[in-house]
Amino acid sequence: MTELSYLSAAELSTVGTPALWAVTIAGVLALLVLDFLVTRRPHEVSLKEALGWSAFYVALPLAFGVWVWSRYGSELGVQYLTGYLVEKSLSVDNLFVFMLLLAAFAVPAVLAQRVLLYGIAGALVLRAVFIALGAAALQTLDFAFLLFAIILIVTAVKLLRDALSGHEQEVDINKMRSVKVLRRVMPVVDEYQGTRMTVRQNGRRALTPLALVVVAVFATDVVFAVDSVPAVYGITEDPYLVFATNAFALLGLRALYFVLHAALSRLVHLSYGLAVILAFIGVKLGLHWAHGIWPGVPQIPTLASLGVIIGILVVVTLTSLRATRDREPGDTGVVAERH
User: Fold this and answer.
1) How many domains does the chain have?
2) What was the pLDDT predicted at 191?
3) Angstrom distance (rounded) from CA 265 to CA 194
4) Which residues, including other chains, have CB under 8 Å from residue 66's CB and lie 6 or more apart?
5) Do 197 and 211 form a contact (C-beta atoms < 8 A)?
6) Which of 62, 69, 154, 205 holds its CA 20 to 30 A away from the CA of 53?
7) Short-list 245, 48, 220, CA closest to 119
8) What would the mean pLDDT of 186-208 be, rounded to a whole number?
């Protein structure tokens, strides 16, 4: 294993030159601005519109992967594609939580994509922070890989335990810590006021329900960032590729939500698959750390990791569809409490 403690930030990144970082960040910001322009007038998203944007946000990262492959070789190309697949898989779990929150807060259909976009923007900022922290840890801590491995394995155990509990997931907004804090700070009106976060009521500034759901989504973004960044560092040590895979996986979530909204409830075994994937990557990281101390310890090649991850996702998708083949259309299985 490379002695990461002695590497500079520039040396740690094989792909990300300062110019490429600048272009990529500018491109991500431009895409976010474009999405905000698309959603500036609240409207219900048609399947045709969602499919069009989803196709764009799938083609873009794949085209970028082809460029990485041709420019930097197959090894980094496979690392990027594997990392993107892992992040996209975890982002589907994001979508399911977003679906629960939108139902719990009774978000009007015309405002759903604006809430999702705020969540995506917040997630991008948090991922950037965690990616920078992860890169710093890899440079300064000899046991960083072991720490990441433990985080992933603990997360996998929690996911598996929750999946095995057999209880339907539910969200009670009155029990959410972020909502309790906001209600102590400012009054909250009962009705949505379009895309407005605050309104003036009885001469006093008050929050709208939209502000509450956006903050709740941000809070869940923190949890997902803790899981996803170590997971992709288990695939590639290059901070630029880590950022690129996260950015591409997140940018397409708004459109993907409306494409998969009905299908999300049928992916009943997704949590099992994600638990296995996170545990597998945790083991991979642990072996990588151990190899640096004991060279005889084997490592798991990235190409093998790609095959394992694809296999797991295919299996849980097929078993989920089989298990829910008799489910009535419109039966989401989502339980949301609102008082």
Assistant:
1) 1
2) 85
3) 28
4) 77
5) yes
6) 69
7) 220
8) 85
Residues above pLDDT 90, as percent of the chain? 29
Q: Mean pLDDT across the chain, nearest whole number?
A: 83
Confidence of residue 172 (pLDDT cuts 50, 70, 90): low
In b/e form, how buried is each residue of 165-175, taking b as 16+ CB within 10 angstroms?
Answer: eeeeeebebee
The residue type of 11 is E
CB 268 within 8 A of CB 324: yes
Residue type, position 26, single letter: A
**Tally of CB atoms within 10 A around 249:** 27
Q: Give the residues across from 198 on adjacent strands.
A: 207
State the DSSP code for 207: E
- Tokens 């895309």 — which residue? 195
pLDDT the model gives residue 173: 66
Is the pLDDT at 186 greater than 80? The verdict is yes
The 3-state DSSP class for residue 309 equals helix
Strands 204-207 and 170-172: unpaired
Average pLDDT over residues 135-142: 83
The pairing of beta strand 335-337 with beta strand 170-172: parallel
Range of the domain at 117: 4-8+17-337
Which among 313, 232, 271 has a CA at the least distance from the CA of 94? Answer: 271
